Amino acid sequence: MDAPSPSPVRPRTDPLRRTALTALDWHRPLTVTAALCLALLAVAVVGLLLDDRVVHGDPVWLKPAKFAVSIGVYNVTLAWLLSLLTRWRRTGWWLGTVVAAMLAGELVAVVFQAVRGEPSHFNYATPLDSAVYNAMAAMVVTVWVANLAIGVLLLVQRLDDRSTTWAIRIGIAIGLVGMGLAYLMTSPTAEQMTTMREGGVAEVIGAHTVGYEDGGPGLPLVGWSTVAGDLRVPHFVGLHGLQVMVLLALALMAWRGRYPRLASDALRLRVVAVVGASYSALVALTTWQALRGQSVVRPDPLTLAVAGTLGAVTLLGLWWAFRRRRGERSERGASVPGRGSGHP
After folding, report:
1. How would DSSP label each residue in 142-163?
2. Which helix (H) or strand (E) holds 314?
3. Is 7 in a helix, a strand, or coil?
4. End-to-end C-alpha distance for the chain, whole angstroms
5. Residue 331 gets which letter from DSSP?
6. CA dist 67 to 8, 48, 107, 313, Å?
7. Where, by residue number, does the polypeptide cross the bilayer (predicted)?
8. What is the sign of the dihedral through the CA atoms of 235, 236, 240 and 245?
């Protein structure tokens, strides 16, 4: 009797590889740029370990590392959002490609200046430094405009789940504000204005620290000032509001099976609205604190009072969101979005 023929063995797909292929399907240029960010992060970590040069008080490879993480996370998020488009897909693809190209150029400029041991931002010391910084500024403006256009496309996009739809809309708006806050750093300080009025040459125009020179004492890893206001704080908080809102919406969707109350689409929408409003207020609070020359780790009584009020209002809002309402329906059929393709 013949032995039974073995059944064909299906090759198993590595989960990491499957995830990477899915991300590539969302939007290839953005995903590839995110992968390059991961490679740059590895290079920057090696640089932090081996290169002891310092720029404005920070290790010369700290900024490339931070930019790699921030841009990588943002690109993956934006790629996923573009995969949700059912209309204007080709327009969205090209806008995403513009963002990917500009942010890749931004990374090249930051790394170029790190290799030279020079500041990448606010640097007008030489014609080359000035050209690099002005090119970066132009790329950032292009990214902002492209993100605004993507935001408009997503604004008219309707998903099966209302809470996810509004989380994306609110997150895009917060992210645009966060990007725009970088403009506050480009204004010359009082000392720089004095130098230029007296006919001198200001090698640095602009600063992220308020009430102290850039390069003073700062927090580990992020470098935010511990002695004065730092506009990088609200810039960071606002820029990554998109990820916060998207993760919130996806978490609420994922927890529906475990927590029956979350099966209500209306309840999830209220939670998104409360968190979105509170997060927007947090961006405003950190901006106000920085402009007053106050370190994020040294709030005065007034800042503490405002922060405490914001926390209390947020808790009250969440209590309101979770209150049981008569006739509120559960919508268990809504699916988590994100299976579309990002190709044009």
Report:
1. HHHHHHHHHHHHHHT---S-HH
2. helix 301-322
3. coil
4. 56
5. -
6. 47, 14, 7, 34
7. 30-50, 65-85, 92-115, 135-156, 168-186, 236-255, 267-290, 302-322
8. negative
Place of tokens 């580990």: 220
Sign of CA dihedral 321, 84, 106, 220: positive
Tokens for 114? 């790190």
Q: Answer for the pair 93, 29: CB distance below 8 angstroms, yes or no.
A: no
**How far apart, in Å, are the Cα atoms of 310 and each of 87, 235, 244?**
38, 19, 18
In sequence order, the 6+-apart residues with CB closer than 8 A to the CB of 237 are 178, 282, 283, 286
- Helix, strand or coil for residue 122? coil
The two structure tokens encoding residue 290: 């920085």
Angle at 292 between CA 288 and CA 295, to 5 degrees: 90
Q: Which residues contact 120 (CB under 8 A, 6 or more apart)?
A: 63, 109, 110, 112, 113, 114, 132, 133, 136
180, 203 Cβ separation under 8 angstroms: no
CA pair distance 269, 274, nearest whole angstrom:
9
DSSP state for residue 259 in the 8-state scheme: -
Task: Tell me which amino acid residue 105 is.
Answer: G
CA distance 323 to 59: 50
Quick one: tokens of 336?
């988590």
Residues in the chain, overall count: 344
**What three-state secondary structure class fits 290?**
helix
Report the alpha-carbon distance of residue 279 to residue 238 in Å, rounded.
8
* Beta strands in the chain, from DSSP E residues, in sequence order: 54-55, 58-59, 209-210, 229-230
Instruction: Output the six-digit token pair for 79.
Output: 């790629």
